[in-house]
Recover the amino acids of this structure.
């Protein structure tokens, strides 16, 4: 199809969707690797550990038992029950199984939540820097993304006052992502309480993406806004899943939990578009949520060490600095003092030093680089030796 044909054939929506911003650099890194060049990958977005053995064994058992057909579209009862227990024990949130929907990855739940809440012209308030997929999803729903800029000095977090000032008559949803990809910012309970007051005063709904909730490097952990009060729980859709905590990115199990009517609407959308998540992965995820706590804890302990190491290494690079991430698995390094922008530096790092990083431009931060510590401590050390030349 020629470019001219594409203009005629593709819908306006399809034309509007931006290609994945992280793709260009990863494609380049892959091409170098294929030429036999040992590229160090600080661009990854998934844990390097393998999925726990007990989870894999359950998947094999499920297959051998013939558990290979459609399941209820909102998820199998045992998984919904395990999710309710997880939310109660780890997040202090009580929900009934009908308030939970299982999806093919957290991403699908976020999209369904946006489709269920956002009408054309509605505003979704989004703290920046943000995960790249959110505005694209809002665009597909014909909604408007209103970004709320944050600063490194403020720990990359919005304040309640800032939120209050940003609300208009069209504001419908606040999207929170704590711990954050890409900044690692984690909102404290006190901060969420203040933000929560503005949410209630302005009749907003909250989509709370908590996919990194088990990966925190502070004493308090990563609290959920839904745990603050019943009033906030009644207007929050929690998003989470098995991908990051249990190294299960390829199994595609995510979930949403929230008000019954909204979850039911998301269920109808899912029914008509994708049906259930993989039956085998659902069985495996029951084991992850019920018996994977030690694994998730070990992952957090190891990633905490890597995070400390990477932070120390960043500080040794002239012109680089980094606000310490309190969660997730990225360092969001400030490179403004190098005199180069993120795109230029990311390309230079790849071409000269064979280090893949993601330029912050994709997240709305043109003078930051996102470096993932989903690689061993040895690789982190080697990578920074290369960077320092
Ligand atoms: N939310 C955030 C903030 C993420 O970083 C990611 C993955 O990179 C997701 C959601 C998607 O998770 P899943 O792989 O379960 O769809």
């Amino acid at each position: 199809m020629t470019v001219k044909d594409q203009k005629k054939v593709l819908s306006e929506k399809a034309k509007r969707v931006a290609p994945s911003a992280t793709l260009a650099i990863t494609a380049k890194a892959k091409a170098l690797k294929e030429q036999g060049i040992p590229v160090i990958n600080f661009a990854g977005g998934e844990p390097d550990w393998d999925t726990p053995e007990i989870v894999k064994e359950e998947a094999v058992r499920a297959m051998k038992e013939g558990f290979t057909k459609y399941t209820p579209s909102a998820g199998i009862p045992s998984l919904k029950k395990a999710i309710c227990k997880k939310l109660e024990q780890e997040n202090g949130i009580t929900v009934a199984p009908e308030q939970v929907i299982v999806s093919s990855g957290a991403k699908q739940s976020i999209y369904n939540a946006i489709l269920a809440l956002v009408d054309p012209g509605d505003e979704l308030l989004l703290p920046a820097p943000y995960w790249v997929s959110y505005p694209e999803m809002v665009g597909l729903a014909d909604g408007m993304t209103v970004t709320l800029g944050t600063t490194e000095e403020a720990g990359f977090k919005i304040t309640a006052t800032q939120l209050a000032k940003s609300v208009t008559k069209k504001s419908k949803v606040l999207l929170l992502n704590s711990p954050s990809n890409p900044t690692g910012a984690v909102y404290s309970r006190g901060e969420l309480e203040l933000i929560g007051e503005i949410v209630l005063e302005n009749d907003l709904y909250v989509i709370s993406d908590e996919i990194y909730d088990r990966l925190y490097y502070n004493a308090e952990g990563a609290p959920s806004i839904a745990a603050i009060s019943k009033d906030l729980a009644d207007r929050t859709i929690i998003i989470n899943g098995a991908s990051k905590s249990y190294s299960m990115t390829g199994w595609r199990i995510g979930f949403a939990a929230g008000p019954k009517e909204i979850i039911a609407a998301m269920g109808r959308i899912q029914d008509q578009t994708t049906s259930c998540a993989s039956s085998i992965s659902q069985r495996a995820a029951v084991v992850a949520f019920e018996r994977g706590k030690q694994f998730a804890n070990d992952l957090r302990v190891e990633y905490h060490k890597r995070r400390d190491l990477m932070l120390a290494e960043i500080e040794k690079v002239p012109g680089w600095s980094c606000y310490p991430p309190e969660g997730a698995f990225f360092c969001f390094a400030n490179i403004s003092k190098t005199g180069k922008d993120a795109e230029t530096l990311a390309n230079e790092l790849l071409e000269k030093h064979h280090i893949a990083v993601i330029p912050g431009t994709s997240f709305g931060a043109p003078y930051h680089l996102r470096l993932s510590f989903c690689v061993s401590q040895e690789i982190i050390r080697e990578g920074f030796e290369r960077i320092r030349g």
About this structure: The chain has a mean pLDDT of 96. The chain has 15 helices and 13 strands. The chain has two domains: 3-50+294-388, 68-291.
